[in-house]
Design brief:
The complex is a heterodimer of chains A (600) and B (356).
Chain A lengths: L6 E8 L5 H11 L17 H6 L7 E7 L5 E7 L8 H9 L3 E7 L6 H12 L3 E7 L8 H12 L7 E2 L8 H11 L12 E10 L3 E10 L2 E2 L3 E4 L4 E4 L2 E5 L3 E3 L2 E2 L4 E8 L9 E4 L18 E7 L5 H14 L4 E7 L3 E8 L2 H14 L4 E3 L6 E5 L4 E4 L11 E16 L3 H10 L3 E7 L4 E9 H15 L5 E12 L1 E8 L2 E2 L5 E4 L3 H15 L7 E7 L2 E8 L15 H16 L2 E3 L2 E3 L14
Parallel strand pairs in A: 1-3, 1-4, 4-5, 5-6
Antiparallel strand pairs in A: 2-3, 7-8, 7-16, 8-15, 9-14, 10-11, 10-16, 12-13, 12-15, 17-19, 17-20, 18-19, 21-22, 21-23, 23-25, 23-26, 24-25, 27-28, 27-29, 27-30, 30-31, 32-33
Helix pairs in contact in A: 1-6, 3-4, 9-10
Chain B lengths: L1 E7 L1 E2 L11 E2 L2 H18 L4 E8 L8 H4 L5 E11 L6 H9 L4 E7 L3 H6 L6 H13 L5 E7 L6 H12 L5 E6 L7 H4 L8 H17 L3 E4 L2 E3 L6 H7 L5 E3 L4 E4 L2 E4 L4 H6 L6 E4 L2 H12 L6 E2 H8 L3 H4 L1 H6 L4 E4 L2 E4 L1 H5 L1 H5 L4
Parallel strand pairs in B: 1-4, 1-11, 2-3, 4-5, 5-6, 6-7, 7-8
Antiparallel strand pairs in B: 8-10, 9-10, 12-13, 13-14, 15-17, 16-17
Chain lengths: 600, 356
């Protein structure tokens, strides 16, 4: 097989916090892709939210030039990957564009649940895996133990594992050498017609829709007529380049290269997974695309101001280009007006999307409590999928409700097994297996309703294990459960956006907690507001927000009318941030209250 | 005819809750300041004065000689109010004030409980306050107002009731009751006091004021003000009726010819340029209208629908039907006037913000 000897495509896989982005920065620095003075910590994390939260959400690509010890010049293409369980879809996309992967393991933490999950993905893709043991400069680092774990748990030969400290800059050159030595060069099929796999896209105000791709066969030049094979759309390449890590324009890209192009694509359509070919010399067969990401968590997104509905729609259309895993469909709520029912990969994904919509598109949103998709069999035999609790058929029309279960893997030190098993039981987990990975580390397996996993499970897992337990889960199947719809009434009016589906046994507990949580959140109004939780029309909990008694400027202001007016304007602005549900002004966070009822 | 406010920004000591501009009393500063004030006075005051109000700060910390030289041209039936602090005046000072035309006093009593007075940083005690009222009466004043504050740290309903009762026995004609508000930049803002009464207790204290004072012949005529019949503050009514007033002195706010203006809060700047407001803006018709509403509805008598129509060329009931309906329990209408109920006054921020 002919290969392009001077190109290496690789990615970095790691558990969140194991130092992936820091290592990527060092590689960019060492190869002088970025001058040190221009270095902004964690360069590949371009979104503000990523830097603030210290996590990678979107995959990014960067091209480096490296002169190896063998005296030859190489082009190294790095594709960054996210580490959180919600984003395994993004991980699989970046893996498909590579021939090799750096597997980072924290020398103080060892192998964790997501490391395992991502390594399996990499093995499926036939990637060459190079173990890198990071944070060796820390006093609690135990390189030998971690090597042993890599061999025992992951079944990967760790004899070539490279000890590094990305933070202190130790071992960086060894990593670059290992990439050149172990990662296979991409196959050279430059004589074939162009085939490039689009692994990402985004919308740029000046350039229109941009496609990020890896060239599998052939080459592409500036000015070429190209065609997206699935969507059958044809464009002329008006800008071509690679990420360095900012966009750098070139005239041509060849087999094995990773780059981007602009074709002045003004409409917004689905690019990711599509194959780019040459319109005049097209390939016969498109590349296999990606497995479609399956949203697991659904919630309603509504503009606080009803007239922003159209803006929200446009923002979602554009965001979808950049994150094809979100799904959305228009829905309406009697309490919240018009909005969208959106599907997300997980809770973190949901938070990120909401935050991006608010920041990047300047919207003010209400997110309703997340729900999973329930499978409801009606008495007439019809089966309906319900992703919004409001739409649950009434009990007399229901034969049964099934809910999605996930297989949960928790990796944890053995001293926390007791408390975590207890937690899994309270979350309706079904015990499956427990295995010792070594003397200390335990893998717990449970089957658990997804709805329990997405509400507070992760936070409680972390707090009960002092941060040591790690979590991974994947969909398993639907199981029948005894579920009921819990309704909330404000001032005697049911508020559809506050309904949730809960297990019958916990309805009372959740109802009480939710009612008192809402009492804390909803400010006093001009009249007394009764908050009731009800199941099937029967009230199971009730609290009251007392009427506001006094809100008046009764201070001596003399002739300073401006100050009086400012105060009234402030009063008005405060009200605007709330949603009027019937006569009651409800703050945004009330719609997510069910997620935090077990706090403190 | 004009109304005039003059700000006297001097105090012996700043109180813990106060956010008004004031400076420590010094003779040199008085001289400079009154020099500037007179310039501003000559520049701005051209008409006969129907109401005058000297407020502060503490106007009474400034020796009488500084006030002597103002040449006021009074209208018939004028009202001239002067704010005093109980521990800063004596009979002679008060008689002197009468000699230049002062005919109404506003005394900053705040409370008749010595522990509370101390805790809020007042320099006088309860018996000095009582003495002060008697001295004022001896000097010939028959229109006296006292200020009281509720919602103070560690103030119980009982203590508030005692202060209210005491106030009604002194032979004064007007009582203002203000709710404590902790503001940024004040001593309390930086050192939040403990033991503040909550919203419910403050609401009850307000209701108790209405009950006790009205029973004793002091009628609520504005959110914070009670007066015997005919003794309402005419100067303050100017504000609430959205009528013009001239303002003099550092940080003072005025409203003339449809423009709102205020002077600098910078003492040095003011001395240099006393006749030049720091900020001035012409109000739009809309702004004048909304101000007319939110000021007018502070008064117990509210707005006259007919006068409103004539003055603003707007049918109040028609234009604000939405607000009137939304808060209908908090409005009352009689004799061609629309006004807030006592409950409505207590929640007026919520209601009045709807007009903005």
């Amino acid at each position: 097989m002919k290969r392009i000897e001077n190109v290496r495509n690789f990615c970095i896989i790691a558990h969140i916090d194991h130092g992936k982005s820091t290592l990527a920065d060092r590689l960019l620095e060492k190869t002088a892709t970025i001058a040190q003075r221009d270095m902004q910590n964690q360069l590949l994390d371009t979104m503000d939210i990523e830097r603030e939260r210290g996590i990678t959400i979107k995959l990014q690509a960067a091209r480096m030039n490296y002169k190896a010890k063998d005296g030859k010049d190489y082009v190294l293409n790095l594709i960054d990957t996210p580490g959180h369980v919600d984003f395994s879809y993004e991980v699989s996309r970046s893996l498909a564009a590579c021939e090799g992967a750096l597997l980072i393991v924290d020398a103080t933490q060892g192998v964790e649940a997501q490391t395992l999950a991502n390594v399996y993905l990499a093995i499926e893709q036939n990637l060459e895996i190079i173990p890198v043991i990071n944070k060796i400069d820390l006093p609690s680092a135990d390189v030998e133990r971690v090597k042993q774990e890599i061999e025992d748990i992951l079944g990967i030969d760790a004899s070539h594992a490279i000890p590094v400290s990305a933070k202190a800059g130790i071992g960086i050159e060894d990593v670059l050498e290992a990439i050149v030595e172990y990662v296979p060069a991409p196959e050279d099929t430059s004589d074939k017609p162009l085939r490039a796999l689009v692994f990402d896209s985004c919308y740029d105000a000046y350039l229109g829709t941009l496609a990020y791709f890896k060239i599998i066969d052939g080459s592409v030049k500036l000015g070429d007529k190209i065609k997206f094979m699935a969507s059958k759309k044809t464009y002329e390449v008006v800008e071509l380049g690679y990420m360095n890590p900012l966009r750098k324009q070139v005239k041509e890209l060849k087999t094995g290269d990773v780059g981007y192009l602009s074709g002045s694509i003004k409409d917004v359509f689905q690019l990711v997974g599509d194959t780019i070919t040459n319109a005049e010399n097209p390939s016969k067969e498109a590349l296999p695309g990606y497995k479609k990401a399956v949203p697991m968590v659904f919630s309603g997104l509504y503009p606080v101001e009803n007239h922003e509905y159209q803006d929200l729609k446009e923002a979602l259309d554009k965001l979808k280009l950049n994150d094809s895993s979100i799904t959305y469909e228009p829905e309406s709520s009697s309490a919240l007006g018009f909005g969208f029912r959106c599907g997300f990969l997980g809770m973190l994904h949901m938070e990120i999307i909401q935050e991006r919509l608010e920041r990047e598109y300047d919207l003010s949103l209400i997110t309703t409590a997340p729900s999973v998709i329930y499978k409801v069999t009606k008495t007439d035999g019809e089966v309906v999928m319900i992703d919004n609790p409001t739409n649950l058929p009434d009990p007399q029309y229901r034969e049964k409700i099934e809910e999605p279960y996930v297989r949960v893997n928790v990796l944890l030190p053995n001293e926390y097994v007791g408390t975590i098993m207890e937690l899994c039981q309270t979350k309706r987990g079904i015990y499956k297996n427990m295995s010792y990975l070594d003397n200390i580390r335990v893998n717990l397996e449970y089957e658990m309703p997804l709805s329990e996993v997405i509400t507070e499970f992760y936070d409680q897992l972390k707090s009960r294990s002092k941060g040591y337990a790690s979590l991974d889960y994947e969909y398993s199947d639907y199981k029948r459960s005894d579920l009921v719809k819990l309704d909330i009434l404000l001032a005697n009016e049911p508020v559809d956006a506050l309904s949730t589906i809960v297990h019958k046994d916990s309805a009372f507990h959740v109802g009480q907690k939710l009612a008192s949580k809402l009492k804390e959140i909803i400010p006093r109004q001009m009249f007394e507001v009764a908050i009731q939780a009800a199941v099937g029309g029967r009230v199971i909990a009730r609290t009251t927000v007392k009427a506001m008694r006094k809100n008046v400027l009764d201070k001596c202001y003399g002739g300073d009318i401006t100050r009086k007016k400012k105060l009234l304007e402030k009063q008005k602005a405060g009200k605007k941030r709330m949603k009027s549900v019937g006569r009651v002004e409800v703050p945004q966070e009330a719609f997510m209250a069910v997620l935090s009822i077990d706090e403190d | 005819m004009s109304s005039l406010y003059v700000h006297i920004p001097f105090c012996v000591k700043k109180c813990n809750y106060c956010s008004f501009i004031s400076f420590p009393s010094k003779k040199e500063a008085f001289e400079l300041y009154f020099g500037a004030l007179k310039k501003e006075f000559e520049h701005k005051v051209k008409e006969k004065l129907k109401t005058i109000y000297f407020g502060g700060g503490t106007p009474s910390v400034v020796p009488f000689e500084f006030y002597k030289s103002f040449k006021f041209d009074f209208a018939d039936e004028y009202e001239f109010t002067f704010e005093i602090n109980p521990s800063t005046v004596d009979l002679k000072y008060l008689k002197n004030l009468r000699s230049i035309g002062v005919n109404r006093l506003s005394i900053g009593v705040q409370s008749f409980d010595d522990t509370i007075l101390k805790s809020i940083g007042r320099i006088h005690n309860s018996s000095q306050a009582i003495e002060c009222v008697k001295t004022a009466q001896a000097a010939g004043f028959d229109n006296i107002s006292i200020d009281l504050i509720y919602g103070l740290p560690n103030q119980t309903m009982e203590l508030w009731q005692q202060s209210l009762q005491k106030a009604t026995t002194l032979g004064v004609q007007h009582i203002s009751t203000y709710g404590l508000k902790i503001e940024e930049g004040t001593h309390f803002g930086k050192n939040p006091p403990k033991g503040l009464p909550d919203e419910d207790l403050c609401a009850d204290m307000y209701l108790r004021s209405v009950e006790v004072l009205e029973k004793n012949g002091f009628n609520l005529y504005e959110i914070s003000n009670f007066a015997q019949k005919g003794k309402e503050s005419r100067h303050n009514m100017t504000y609430w009726e959205n009528n013009p007033y001239i303002a003099l002195g550092v940080s003072a706010h005025g409203y003339q010819d449809g423009s709102r203006y205020y002077n600098t809060s910078d003492f040095g700047k003011y001395l240099k340029n006393p006749a030049e407001p720091e900020f001035s803006e012409k109000l739009t018709e809309d702004e004048i209208l909304t101000e007319g509403i939110f000021l007018g509805l502070r008064m117990k008598k509210g707005l006259s629908l007919k006068e409103f129509k004539i003055r603003y060329n707007v049918d109040f009931q028609e234009k604000y039907a939405y607000v009137l309906n939304k808060y209908k329990d908090f409005f009352e209408q009689k004799n061609g006037r629309i006004s807030l109920t006592t409950q409505g006054l207590m929640l007026s921020n919520v209601i009045l913000s709807e007009f903005i």
